Amino acid sequence: MTKPTQYILLLILILINQFSIAEKTPINEMSIFQLPSVWINQNNQSLELKDLQGNVLVVVMIYTSCQAACPKLVAHMKNIYDQVSSKTKKEIKYLLVSIDPDTDTPEHLKEFAKKNNMLSDNWLFLTGSKENIRVFANVMGTKYKKISPLEFSHSNIISIFDDKGVLQYQQEGLHSDNSNTVKKIMELVMP
């Protein structure tokens, strides 16, 4: 290969590299994709929240041994999923983030997903370190406290993040109507 050909190839590679760097969209400073935490899903796979870029996220924090609020939050999530999936096939991820990593192992989360018929690829059950869970809860405005070896007191919030990971809406309470949440999701996936 001649010197001029080598220089031309080098110049082409530099331009291609510069073009691909310029095309990457910077992550919004308010995005949860900025969080450096690593999570483990129900399939025992590691992921970072930034791996979910491009998806609208519907997120709730629960613990699977809960017998009070969490079953209602799970029912809300399933209801939202049913309403939204009947209207669009866009990529939406439904995240259930455990506040009890000691109990909610990936294997336990997978069993919980099966038991609740939440098996499609849209559902992600996440566990992580206690520190990462606490940071994520603070970002979401979710409060929780272990009140006994088997119980937590916690906020009842379902949060909606746009495809850039920026919080857009929160549904609070156990007796909320899901219609505003579904409406917000539809606005985000079908602008």
Protein described:
With 191 residues, the protein is of the alpha+beta class. The chain has a single domain, classed as 3-Layer(aba) Sandwich (Glutaredoxin). It contains 5 helices and 9 strands. The strands form 2 sheets. A 7-stranded mixed beta sheet has the order 2-1-5-4-3-8-9, sandwiched between helices. A two-stranded antiparallel sheet has the order 6-7. Strand 3, helix 2 (69-85) and strand 4 (92-98) form a beta-alpha-beta unit. It is globular. It starts with a helix and ends with a helix. The relative contact order is 0.18. The model is unreliable at 3-7 and 17-23 (pLDDT under 50).
**CATH topology name:** Glutaredoxin
CATH superfamily, please?
Glutaredoxin
Number of strands: 9
What letter string, H or E per element, gives the SSE order?
A: HEEEHEHEHEEEEH
Architecture, CATH level 2? 3-Layer(aba) Sandwich
The strand order across the widest sheet is: 2-1-5-4-3-8-9
- What is the class in the CATH system? Alpha Beta
Query: What is the helix content?
Result: 25-40%
The biggest sheet amounts to: 7 strands, mixed
Strand content: 15-25%
Rg (CA only): 20 Å
Q: How many structural domains? A: 1
Q: List low-confidence stretches.
A: 3-7, 17-23
Output mean pLDDT: 84
The termini sit apart by 52 Å
Q: In terms of topology, how is this protein built?
A:
Elements: H1 3-23, E1 38-41, E2 46-48, E3 56-62, H2 69-85, E4 92-98, H3 106-115, E5 123-127, H4 130-140, E6 144-148, E7 151-154, E8 157-161, E9 167-172, H5 179-189
Parallel strand pairs: 3-4, 4-5
Antiparallel strand pairs: 1-2, 1-5, 3-8, 6-7, 8-9
